[in-house]
Amino acid sequence: MESVIRGVVVYAFLFLIFRIAGKRTLAQTSPFELVLLLIISETTQQAMVDSDHSVTNALLLIMTLVGLSVVLSVIKHRSKAASRWLEGLPVRVVRDGVWDREVGDRMRVEEAEVLTAARATHGLERMEDIKHAVVENDGTISIVPRDGG
């Protein structure tokens, strides 16, 4: 039972940390972030298994973590409020070709990143050619071009 409790606590803690870290943390992985993720996974593994390295304990932890994932998925499906809290909402950083610096700073997105996404997806080179740019729940940037753009 201790392994189940450890698994739930670690899952909840990691969920909270990644939720606080923001959408952009998961959208882009630099070498630094990859190393950080590997270190976190090793630390997490040690925190969950303690001194019990048995196959039974590993299977129990896997079932606990997958079970938590399924339960959260069902909760998100049934409750819009829970879904908003667990996943957040898309956030618009460009409205009618105008960069919103305050929102961009809060989302840790730079104007250059939006222009890169606009070039990559629609061949747009100027902010004025973008009707809307949105940071999606997964941290990616969606571009809606202006009509005729």
From TrEMBL:
Primary location class: membrane
Chain ranges of the YetF C-terminal domain: 78-146
Transmembrane segments: 58-75
Keywords: Cell membrane, Membrane, Transmembrane, Transmembrane helix
InterPro entries associated with the record: DUF421, UPF0702_alpha/beta_dom_sf
Domain of life, source organism: Bacteria
Record's bilayer topology term: Multi-pass membrane protein
Compartments where found: Cell membrane
Family, similarity comment: Belongs to the UPF0702 family.
Name of this chain's protein: YetF domain-containing protein
Organism: Fulvimonas yonginensis
